[in-house]
Write a structure and sequence with these properties.
The protein is built from ten helices and 14 strands. The protein is of the alpha/beta class and 367 residues long.
Amino acid sequence: MKQVKNIVITGGPCSGKTTGLSKIEQALSYRGYYVLVVPETATELIPNGIRPFGNSLSMVQFQYVVFNKQLYKENIYRNVAKTLIPSDKIVIIHDRGIMDNKSYVNEEEFKKILQHFNMNEVEARDRYDAVFHLVTAADGAEGYYTLANNAARTETMEEARALDKKGISNWTGHQHFRIIDNSTGFDAKMDRLIHEVFTFLGEPTPLEIEKKFLIKKPNMSEMAKLVPFTTVSIVQTYLRSEKGTERRVRQRGQDGNFSYYFTEKKAVSLLSRIEVERKISAKEYINYLTEADPDIPPIIKKRTCFVYKGQYFELDVFDFSNHLAILEIELESEDSEIQLPDFIDVFEDVSYNPFYRNISLAKARHL
C-alpha cells in the first residue's frame, strides 16, 4: 500500500533549516524513500520583487499571495505523489507550512485569510503529518547567528527570537510537533533532527560513527548474484575558497536523473565549524562549476548501497582506480561488531587515515 507522509521543517531565522532539509532528503533517499521537497514560498517571492512594504504590498496583501501560491504548490505535490509516482514510500518535505504565515499578521487578519481559502486553524495545522521546528541560533547559539545565507531575511537577533517563539506557538497543538533546540553543537543538532524524522517514520535512525575499509575492487556482475544493491553516480567538485573555508558542489543520481547540492564548511575555531548545505538547481550547479578549484580535480565515483546480515554498507568505486575501492559502514558505537561481507576482499581499516578523505583522494588521484 502506498505511503505518503507530509512533514514540515520550520524554524526561526538562522536555525539550520536549509542544511537540515538537505541532510534529511539525502538520508531518506539512502533508505529507499522517494522524496519531494516543496520550497519555501516567501523566499521564492521576495527576491523576485513580490515583497511586503516599500513600494510593493502590505503584509496582509503579501500573505494572501503567499497562501495562494503555497496551497497551489502543496496540492500539486500531493497529487503527483498519490497518482504519478510508483514508489510505495514517499515523503513530501515542506520548507515551512501554512501555520508559519501566522507570525506576520495578527489573529483577526490570519482568521480572515484562512476564511478566504475556506480553512480554519485546525485544518491548516493538521494538514501535515509531522512538524519539526529548529530553534534560531539567536536563542542559545548567538555566536553563530548570521543572515548571510538568505537574502530574504533581515531580522536582528531580538526579532529572530520573537519570530521563533511565535512559530512555536503557531504549531503548538499539532499531534506530532518536535522542537530541536541549541543545547548541543550544530552537527549534533542536525543528528537530533534526523533522529526525530526517522523515529516518526518508524525507521532505524542513520548513525554517524563510520568505519572505512580499503578493499579490492569487486566484480559487480558477480556481486549482483550474491546480494541486491542500488548504484548511484556521484560527482563532487571543490570550488575556489578562502582560507578556513571549504566549498563544494555535488551531483548525485542514477538512470539519467540527478539531484544537486552545494556545501560550505567554515572553521570558527580549532574544534568547530559551521556547515551549510542546500539543494540547488541544475542551472545553479552549472554556474558553480565555473568556480571550480583548478588545483583539486573533481571526485567521480559510483556508490553501491547494499545490506549484508542486517548491516547497511556503501561501496565507492573511483574513476582513477582500476583495482581498489572503499567500503563504508555506519555503526552504533566505535566498538560495534562488524560482519564484513565474505565476498569482499578487505586489505586495511583506513577509518582514521586522513589520506582517504574525499578531498585528499581528489588531490592524490590514487588509492
